[in-house]
Amino acid sequence: MNKVGVAYVLWLGGLFGVSGLHRLYNGEKATGVLWLGTFGLFGFGQLLDLILIPKMVEVHNARLAEKYQPLLDQNPTTLKIEQVTLPVKKFAGLRSPKLFDVPPAISQQQATIELLKAAESRGGKLSVTQGVMATGLSFQQVETLLNQMLKSGYVEISNDAETGIVVYEFKEL
């Protein structure tokens, strides 16, 4: 689609001896060449075009739209979306499927007991990752529980000599 502003800029070419560019831009080939050869019909046609340019652009854009409308209608990327309304009672008894099997939530006390059992089976030492595997809780939840036990004095913290992993040591186990 052509723009009126561009046509006016091309019209300015007539001030430099290149008249008719705006007509060529808008698909007026015969008159565009005539304007080029006669300096815009000796300047009079060039001045008249100042008034005619908006209509010239409008007519050219209408011709383009008419010419390419069948292609736009056949374009596979043009999607017509229609709204589909279904009765609610049809889906009243259905539940949406779960993407993941989520274990039921356990209380903080149950999680603490699971951590203690996991530490006991590992000689009183437990890493956060081992706690996650034993309880099924998230890393943040396990770390929070272990840090609470650390603050209460039930656990001491150290690093594994070989791997450097943070290990929580339960001295009473």
Work out the helix count. Answer: 7
Overall shape: it is: elongated
Radius of gyration: 40 Å
User: How many individual domains?
Assistant: 2
In whole angstroms, the N-to-C terminal distance is 81 Å
Helix content: 40-55%
- β content, as a range? 5-15%
Strand order of the largest sheet: 1-3-2
Mean pLDDT, to the nearest integer, reads 86
Q: Please outline the major beta sheet.
A: 3 strands, antiparallel
Structure description:
With 173 residues, the protein is mainly alpha-helical. It has two domains: 4-73, no CATH class; 108-169, Arc Repressor Mutant, subunit A, CATH 1.10.10.10. It has seven helices and three strands, in the order H-H-H-H-H-E-H-H-E-E. The protein has helices at residues 4-11, 21-25, 29-42, 44-74, 108-121, 128-135, 139-152, and strands at residues 125-126, 156-159, 166-169. It has a three-stranded antiparallel β-sheet with strand order 1-3-2. Helix 1 (4-11) runs antiparallel to helix 4 (44-74) and helix 3 runs antiparallel to helix 4 (44-74). The longest helix has 31 residues, at 44-74.
